[in-house]
Amino acid sequence: MNKKLISLVLLLGVLKAGVLSADIDYWPMFKYDTRRTGQSPYPGPECCNEKWKFSGANYFYSSPSVRVEGNDTLIYIGNRGNAGVGLVYAIKDLGLNSVAKKWEYSAPACLEFNSSPLIYDKYIYIGEGTSAWDGKFYCLYSDSGKVRWTIPSSGFGFHGSSSSPVINAGIIYVGTYDGLLYAMKSNGNLRWTFSIGSVIQSSPAIASDGTIYIGADDNKLYAIEDSITYGKCKWTYQAGGKIRSSPAIGDDGTIYFSTLEDQTLYALNPDSTLKWTYLLSSRPANNRDRSALISSPAISYDGTIYIGAVADTVHAVNPDSTRKWAKYLPGGDAYWNIASSPALSSNGYVYIGVASDNWVPGTGGLFILKQSDGDIVCFYRTENEVWNSPAIGPNKTVYFGDCSGNKLYAIYCEDTGIEENERIEGIEILGNYPNPFIAKTLIEYEIGKPTAVSMRIYNLSGRLVKVLVDEIQESGIHKVSWDGTDESGKSLPRGIYYCTTQCDEKSVTRKLVLVR
């Protein structure tokens, strides 16, 4: 069999397996990936143009997830319904000033869906949360919103959750209000539960070795090991306040999270030892201030940590704990309450929601800042608070919801075709050939002036797998090849990878498809 025929057979096999499916998970879960980095491989808007807004039944505490299915861009999000009925929506983005509801699922005897949906395969996973701390966990068909299964239909209880699920090796993990971490198989069968014994509002993050990290209201961060039949606690770390922030895991395994009462960003080593702490605010804590420290850290490709804090500020912290910048956000009646977690785009922007500082309906909005220096690009004001976290979708669009205004928003800038004709301030990706590739692909790019260039390969979970370039290069055309191996020279499995090229604080990302 000749090489061309072998390539065709392999490519057909990948298509059959869905690797090259038209479906693209642009933002498949809360904070984008299993490590909860909040870093998207796609560009986002650099302006605050309103594309459309969709009216839901009630509050949007849930954060959106985004998938392209065929020719449709779909946004999945939970909602607090009326008359004790929680809702899950599938919203279709039809372009400028055009939006439609594809389906909605009404959950009986459910007050609200605070949990953010997880998109995996053809299913939507989401937990409901109620004031009675009693609810269900759902698996819905993504195309219809019909129920595939619910918990507790499988013989065990599920007590409401604002924790958002994550999936690893086909196992779904989520925390609950009554202090349990659930591990469920994708068919709805229970794998195990681990009792923490304190309220969990943090969402679990998964390290490259499979360790599950999650925070709780007992001021502890937990590292849980998954076995076949049980979850085992590897270690706990006692912090200085409740951990409602969801952990984010860096390329080197460092775990970042924030706490309520001591208003501190923590960095832990994977062995539980403290790496450093960074004070986000010295402002005296009160209930309103503490609610702001629900914001979860996001980690950019260069390792910078971004997080919202009290006193109207967003912080960018270097991996060595030094401050990169702290930006005051103007426009609040008193000050902004920043419970939203940042979303990071591949073209160098930070997106974060804000809410008025009181507990009654008030103003809010979305800020766009530069990752490099924190400069405010623009502010889109909403009539009501934004508590949830934005999601980056296709065509330079960001989606987010407000609370008492019942609106889901799409903010965009016109697509410049950056993923296929990438030129950003001196970088131009001329192409990569072949793509898909079996053994090796050649990436060709041009830079307009001598500058430091970084080119890195990431897998679908956002984990760095290979550094191709990290040096100062002269202007002109450059070529670099990748043979589908990681840093140790080990061959990687077939699938989709992202090549991000960065210089002068700007980056461009191209999708690479490896077939074996």
How is this structure best described in words?
The protein is mainly beta and 516 residues long. The protein has 2 domains: 24-412, Methylamine Dehydrogenase, Chain H (7 Propeller), CATH 2.130.10; 422-514, Immunoglobulin-like (Sandwich), CATH 2.60.40. The chain is 4% helix and 45% strand. It is built from 2 helices and 42 strands. It has a 5-stranded antiparallel beta sheet with strand order 1-3-4-5-6, with no helix packed on it. A hairpin with a 5-residue loop joins strand 38 and strand 39 (464-473). The radius of gyration is 22 Å and the shape is globular. The relative contact order is 0.13. Residues 1-22, 153-157, 284-292 and 416-424 have low confidence and may be disordered.
